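FAQ: What does the model actually see?

It sees only this:
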Amino acid sequence: MKTKTLVSMITGALVIGAASTTFAAANPFSDVPADSWAYDAVSKLAADGIVDGYGDGTYKGQETMTRYEMAQIVAKAMTKTDIDKADKALVDKLAAEFSEELDNLGVRVSDLEKKSDNVKWGGELKYYYKGDKAESGDRTNDTQYEFRLMPKAFIGNSGWTANARIRYYSNSDSANNGGSTNGTGSNNANGGTDKSDTVVDRIYVEGPLFGADTKLGKLDTYSDDVMGSGMIIDDNISGAQFKWNLGKNKTSYVKAVVGRYDFDADANLNKNTSYDGTGDYAAFEVGYKPADKGLSGVAGYYSLRNIDRNLDSSITSAPGYTGSGKAQLSDYQKAGSDNDNIWSAGLGYKFDKNFNIYGVYAKSNLDAASDYKGDDQDKAYDITLAYKGADSAKAGTWGLYTAYRYLGEFATIAPTYDAAARGYKGWEVGGQWTVAQNILTSLRYFKGKDLGNDYAGQDADFNRIYGSVEFFF
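And it is asked to produce this:
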C-alpha cells in the first residue's frame, strides 16, 4: 500500500512538473530573458518615437518585462503606419516572436496572415471634372475616372519593399473602356477624344541604403517636401532617389535624385503641363520643417539636360522652333540649348495648428526667343495661405486656401497643381472636405492669364474650375 502510494505521488509529481513546464512555455506572464534581442528592438522603436512603453507612457528600458507586457507594446507599434522600412521590419519580427500573446490580445498574426501580409494593397478611385474658359470661346469640359492599385511587397526582414502603381483611366465619353492602343487620331485612347487605357507608371524597390531612405527603379519624385508645393515637378522618373532624414525628430532632410525623365503627353492624360520628350534629370534639395509651429525652409537645384523633344508640324511657327526635333523645353525658348537649370528657395511659417503661410521662388537659366513678347517664362513662384486641412482618414475634417501662382515654363517641369497650369499666372482658391473616412472631395478655382499671350492685342485671360471626389482604400 505504501509502495503504491509512493509510486502515485512520484507519478503525480512528474505529471505536475511536466504540465508546469508546458504551461510555462505558453505563460504570457513569464519574463522575457534580460539578454533577449527584443529589448534592443523595442529600445530602437522607442527612440524613433514608434512606441511609448507601458500604459503610463513610460518605457523602463533597464527592467525585464513579461511576454504579455512586451506584446502590449508590439500591439501598439503594429497600429502605426507612418514608419520607415527599418522600423517596420523590427515590428514584423517582434510580432512573429510574440504572436501567441498577440493572439490572446485579439491581435491576430497567424502564420497564414503573416504570409499574406507580405504583400499589401492600397489604392484609390477618383473622379474629376475640369472646365477651362479662355477669353474668347466657350468653356471646354473634361471629366475622367481613374482607378489606381498600389501593391507593396515586403522583402523578408531586410527593410526593403517592392512597389508598383497600376492606373486605369477613362474619360466619361470613352467608348473604349476595355483598353486601347497608343495611336493618334480623333477617336483613340491617348491623345484623342476617346481616352482609356491601363498603364504601370511606377515600379521600384525602396529601403535603407547609405543611411538614406532609397528608391531605385521607375519612381515618383516631388519637389519641396517641406511646404509640399510641388511647383517644379510632381512626376515619375527612371533612376534613383536618396533621402536622409536628419535631427533628433527628423525635422530636417537632404534629398538627391538622378535619372531619366520621359514625359509622354499621350500617356499622361491628367498631366498636360510639360513638354513631350525625354531628358536627364537630377535634383538636390535640403529642407527643414518644425514639428509643431514656427519657421520652415527649403532650397533646391533641379536640372533637366540633353532634352530631346518630340516636335511636330503644328508648332513650326513657335518663336523657338529650330526646324528639328532637338533641344526645346518650351515653344518660347531661345534656340540652341537643351539644358535647363533651375534654382529654387522657399520660406514658410506655421502660426498654429490652423494657419500656415509659405512662399516658394524658382529661377531658370534659359532665355526666351528674340521675338517672344509675353511675360517672363524663366521664373516661377507660389505664395499660399492655408487654413486647417482635410485628412482623408478623419471624417469631417476640412481646409481652405488661397494662393497666387506664377508658373513660367522654363522654371517648371511638371507642377502638381490641378487648377493652375504651367505657363499661366493668377489667383487660385479652393478647399477640401472629408465627407466620410477615406472619401475626400475637392473644389478649386483659378483665374489668371496665359503668360505667352499676355501682351497687346492678344487674348490672355483664362480661368479653370476643378472638382474631384476620391475614394481611398
